[in-house]
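Sharing a chain and its predicted structure for anyone who wants a worked example. Both blocks are below, sequence first, C-alpha cells second.
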Amino acid sequence: MEYAVGRTGRIIAARLFEGEQLYDSIESIAEKEDIKAAAVLITGGIRKADVVVGPKTEKPKIEANFKKFEGPGEVLGVGTIYCDDEDKPKLHLHAGIGRGDNHIVGCPRGGASIFLILEVTIIEIAGIDAKRETDPASGFKLLRIKK
C-alpha cells in the first residue's frame, strides 16, 4: 500500500453543455488551473459513451471489455485527477449511467459526450506527490504515491 496525507485546496464548480466531451472538458479545466491532484464528482446527463465494464481477458494481457451506452441518460460518478508521466492531468472516473431499464456501471471512455448539462465538482488535493506512471507489467498508467 502507498498513501499520503494532503489537504483540501481549491474547489471548482463547472457546468458542461450538450455535446461537450467529458474527459477533454474536465482535463482542460485541470490543466488551465494547474491542478495536479483532485477528487472529482459528476452528476447530470450523458448522451453516449463506450464504458469499460471490467476486463474481457486477464491473460496474457489485460484487455478492456467495452459496453456501448446510447442515451440520452442519467449519470452519477466519482473520480480522481493525477498527472501522467508528461505532467498532464488525467481523469480516472467510474460512474453509474442509465436510461430506463438500461443501466451500466463502469469507466466511461471513448466519445463520452454530455446530454444537456453535467455538473462537475473538482476538489483539489494539495500537499501530496502522486502521479500516474506506466506499469511495465500491465502497460496501464497506474497511480504511484511518493513519500
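Comments welcome. The first strand starts at residue 7 and ends at 17.
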